[in-house]
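Lecture notes, continued. The same structure-token format from the folding unit now serves as the input rather than the output. Read the line below as a description of shape only.
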């Protein structure tokens, strides 16, 4: 989740400032003596990162330094994506048209465990979405909650959702909104003009090209992965692919398209649907800022995305 990753950001940020501790699974992350980030070991994620180090997508993922053991626990050793940034600003975008694996559907049908915490989250946000039986049980399955969350955010419509934004001197904030037409507004408040124009937009276009040429991407179902946007007050900015704990290979005979709707059994994740939507939203955000600048100076200014 975004809270988990932002916890890792705190470990890095504490070397730069006195930020407050962020919410999340604090035990999942540590800092190595060399400054790398240690994330609790997952064989699925480790296999993905090992593959990605030899794939055209390597420039878009944190460098993987292998497995590290500390006491009774094993960790994945990763590049610190905030290294060298001054007062970084961070945005986490969950990619794809669903955030649950097909295997979770099968498991939910055979062994459904009721979760009272997820019931309470649904009750707080949309009580009318709960059935009479769910109210009586005061619990829902994890799959039921994930499907509801995807359907009530831009995940199912745009193929991405903004999970969290952390701005310097402010605490992290969840933005699991269903009002997806407002994405350009969020983006203009998050991204400074010069950075959005020259760095983020071109980085996303380069990522799109790399995905097209990536054997890893063609052969993996990418679920629950995020794009991490980071920039600072010195105009340094980048976008990174993170979180591969639910990313699994498909059979050798299958090649995913990543840009078609999901139907049970086809394993399509809609990652490219989300990336296209994100690129278009960023383009709209850039246009909004351009219009605002024109209004502020009372004149007409020519504008291109390559200015």
């Amino acid at each position: 989740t975004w809270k988990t990753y932002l916890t890792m950001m705190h470990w890095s940020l504490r070397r730069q400032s006195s930020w407050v501790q962020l919410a999340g699974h604090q035990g999942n992350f540590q800092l190595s003596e060399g400054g790398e980030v240690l994330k609790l070991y997952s064989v699925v994620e480790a296999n993905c990162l090992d593959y990605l180090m030899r794939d055209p997508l390597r420039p878009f993922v944190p460098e993987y330094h292998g497995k590290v053991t500390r006491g009774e626990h094993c960790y994945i050793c990763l590049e610190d994506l905030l290294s060298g940034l001054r007062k970084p600003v961070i945005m986490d975008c969950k990619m794809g048209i669903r955030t649950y694996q097909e295997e979770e559907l099968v498991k939910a049908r055979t062994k459904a465990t009721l979760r009272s915490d997820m019931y309470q989250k649904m009750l707080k946000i949309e009580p009318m979405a709960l059935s009479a039986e769910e109210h009586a049980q005061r619990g829902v399955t994890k799959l039921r909650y994930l499907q509801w969350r995807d359907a009530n955010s831009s995940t199912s419509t745009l193929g991405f959702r903004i999970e969290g934004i952390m701005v310097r001197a402010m605490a992290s904030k969840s933005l699991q909104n269903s009002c997806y037409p407002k994405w350009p507004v969020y983006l203009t408040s998050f991204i400074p003009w010069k950075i959005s124009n020259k760095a983020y937009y071109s980085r996303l276009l380069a990522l799109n090209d790399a995905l097209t040429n990536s054997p890893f991407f063609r052969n993996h179902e990418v679920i629950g992965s995020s794009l991490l946007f980071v920039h600072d007050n010195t105009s340094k900015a980048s976008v990174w692919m993170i979180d591969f704990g639910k990313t699994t290979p498909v059979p050798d005979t299958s090649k995913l398209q990543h840009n078609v709707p999901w139907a049970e059994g086809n394993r399509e994740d809609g990652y490219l649907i989300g990336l296209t939507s994100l690129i278009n939203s960023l383009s709209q955000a850039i246009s909004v800022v351009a219009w605002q600048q024109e209004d502020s100076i009372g004149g007409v200014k020519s504008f291109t995305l390559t200015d």
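Point for the exam: The chain has one domain: 8-97+159-298.
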